[in-house]
Amino acid sequence: MDRYLVISSDGHVGLPPERYRTYLESQYHAAFDEAIEREIRMREEHEKRFLIDDFNTKWRARVGDGLEGAWDGTIRNRVLDQDGVAAEVLFPDGITERNAPPFGADIGLKPFGTRPELQWAGARAHNRWLAEFCIEDPARRIGLAVIPALYDLDETLKEIRWAHEHGLKGVFFPSITDGYDMYNHTKYYPVWDLLQQTKMPLHFHSGGAPAYDTTQPGWIGTYLCEFAFWMTRPLWSMTFGGVFEEYPQLKVLFTEAGGEFWFPWVMQLMDIRASAKHTSGKLGDYNANMTMKPSDYFARNVWVGCSALPDEETTESYYQIGIDRILWGTDYPHPEGTWPSTLEKMVLSLGGLPEADIQKMLGGNALDVYDVDHDALAEIAARIGPAKSHFYKQAAE
Amino acid sequence: MDRYLVISSDGHVGLPPERYRTYLESQYHAAFDEAIEREIRMREEHEKRFLIDDFNTKWRARVGDGLEGAWDGTIRNRVLDQDGVAAEVLFPDGITERNAPPFGADIGLKPFGTRPELQWAGARAHNRWLAEFCIEDPARRIGLAVIPALYDLDETLKEIRWAHEHGLKGVFFPSITDGYDMYNHTKYYPVWDLLQQTKMPLHFHSGGAPAYDTTQPGWIGTYLCEFAFWMTRPLWSMTFGGVFEEYPQLKVLFTEAGGEFWFPWVMQLMDIRASAKHTSGKLGDYNANMTMKPSDYFARNVWVGCSALPDEETTESYYQIGIDRILWGTDYPHPEGTWPSTLEKMVLSLGGLPEADIQKMLGGNALDVYDVDHDALAEIAARIGPAKSHFYKQAAE
Fold it and tell me: Which positions fall inside the Amidohydrolase-related domain (chains A, B) (predicted)?
């Protein structure tokens, strides 16, 4: 084949806020009607401070109705065809059009500032809409169920089973666990067991963070220095907790750390902290749950969703992490992603690398991670995938 | 001089718990009497889980009455003489003998699990004892006032003034700010101003952390992957908040990150996050408070207290951080420190490096940071400092 199969590891979908009502169980309609205007207003306020208004206005003008691909399948497929993307992993939240699930069941999925029962209701509403959206084009849409897993294990197990039976291909969990049990707690074992059995990969995505005081100087820089940490806490708590030792087929993905330099550091940090030294004698045998080095579990159980930044250091870090761990992504329809200049940025990131490596990062590794239809994807890629020649022209010039 | 001047950046002192009563204002005696047995019991419990009992018993047997140097000046000076250390920066908490200030005014200095008024009372009790302890031998004892700065700015300013007038040479602040304002908040400006005026360096020390569930597997590994992060949050919040821009003479130290690989990462992380890219366009001008790169402020305002780990990677990282930023330390009397084999470990860490670099790290940089008596220290070093020849014999072999 003269084209690459591209499976984006980082796509975002969600209805315009008011349209989630239809998918919400009727006992939550009153709460929804009461909350919806406040939620929209909060997002508008947030946008004023964080996602600068002016930037968004220009962004909308530039990309036209492409933002509506967050919920409109026809527009989405048109964008994917233009972008050369055969399929996508679908997280919640279109951001610019504020199309996130209600009641805090969004990409932050925080366990504070919301009520567990309502967050669950919002998650189920999103999952039910998403299942419909994915069934429209099951080969191209790898939907992730939003699972607020911290509150109620029975509900968690039930929703994972529902998602699996309804064609969703993985789950998205909160990375912020404040006030609840971290993922090294043994109570989560039945969850890991079910994910392993159903071959549903577990995803964490940047976005969740504690509340910052947005009236103070430096809060954004502080957030930028910390967001990858907040996302990655489940990695070391699960690793040192022995989760990957107990569940060797469990698959975990960490998506959009904002530059992949983060993961080589984290792998090294875990290995250093796991190596017994004079300094840790007072700590006892805290590695008893592991038979391998943390980075060895990483190489077996963990993948990194790379929302591609076209710079050399990022590409170099792909090799430090391991080429078979990297799942490239566009982050469509977020403004920090590659769309609508995906091919150009793809070539900037990956152009000139060995063909086999590019194939793995763009789509081959995703085929290993997800339970998807290889033949159907190959057909789509043959039609719209980026020509391999693009990646070598530049290197030859 | 044929000997090095050694100023340890990391020493710990504290009374046996029951002896803090004398230094506590009388209105807190009833609370102290009610709390003291519970606090001692909690430390014993903690020791059973974290600072393994068996390890501590062996440690006590090995080092004899040396642990009593945590509060006994005669023993402390004897240990320092044997260790070749002329002077020390003094943080609270002897650990093994549980000699920490009461009411949570300890090295964790956490803003939860204690009452602000009581934590302040415990801190003042420690500071009053410490001022007495330092006045016994002012050249050798660089005492740090414990300041629970999050609750009450007037009390903070008052206590810094008291500490400065009573011979203490710097302050130790909580690094965990959960539930209170982070250090980018402009309300702290008068504090930075006073510290700059009085030339009192500000210290953060590892130890503070959120509560982990100590019944679950992997919690120690999780803590080990996170403790340096918890300590370092003030660095980027102050940097991006513009504190070093506003207070160019403010001096901040971060002590005992457990392997100095951490700081080159953090400097790089801050610089990457500060560099405007396509991805951050939606964030607006979040660098408006800085006229330099974060790592440039680091090179001017920040020092690292290195509780020496004798391995090559750590020594290499000293050069990445900058030799003039490094303050070597023994961590006496903590078991993870170099005592009682300080000279041997010093030589393992630094042996063979250029003499001028060794001098900076062992003591020269500390002379820049602290308001100390250079002549008195030179005299002590000439008597007990480690012979420079030790550091080159090994390299020549």
Answer: 117-371
